[in-house]
Design a protein that fits this description.
Layout lengths: L1 H12 L7 E12 L8 E11 L7 E8 L10 E13 L3 E10 L2 E10 L7 E8 L2 E9 L2 E7 L1
Length: about 150
């Protein structure tokens, strides 16, 4: 019976006993509902964030697109982030800061996702270029979901 205790203590000693933290989600929400019979203005988000051990920078991706204007037939706002500079996990949320692209131009991005199960999950995005806020959006998801495991 002592062998499992020794193995468990060795795993903890070498840092192999810690499971990686992760957050992932995908879903959509309505930016503006069209109550006159036309199409709603909608957005979609898809992300996967992971960290290993004490590594705060993490890795993964964030993709966001929105028809953020009237009579949209194509995504107007396109945001991509694949370089995370800071990842901070809370009990049911994750905050990610990093470098990405906003309309194919370099941008600093801050993203927060909250797993509010069973209530609708929530996200927040802020995009800066040259220190100036260029885009900001937050909403509960209408469809899909967010999962956070710190």
């Amino acid at each position: 019976m002592r062998v499992p205790l020794v193995l468990a203590s060795c795993l903890a000693l070498f840092g192999m006993g810690d499971a990686p933290s992760f957050a992932k989600g995908r879903g959509g929400f309505t930016i503006r509902a069209n109550h006159s019979g036309g199409e709603d203005v909608v957005a979609a988000i898809n992300f996967d964030v992971q960290t290993a051990g004490s590594r705060r920078s993490g890795y993964g991706f964030l993709n966001y697109s929105a028809e953020d204007h009237e009579h949209a037939r194509y995504p107007h706002v396109v945001l991509r982030m694949q370089r995370f500079t800071e990842v901070v996990f809370g009990k049911t949320m994750v905050t990610v800061r990093g470098i990405g692209e906003f309309h194919d131009e370099p941008a600093q991005i801050e993203f927060r996702a909250e797993d509010r199960s069973p209530a609708p999950d929530f996200f927040h995005i802020e995009v800066k270029q040259n220190g100036e806020v260029k885009y900001h959006r937050h909403s509960e998801l209408n469809v899909g979901g967010i999962e956070v495991k710190p």
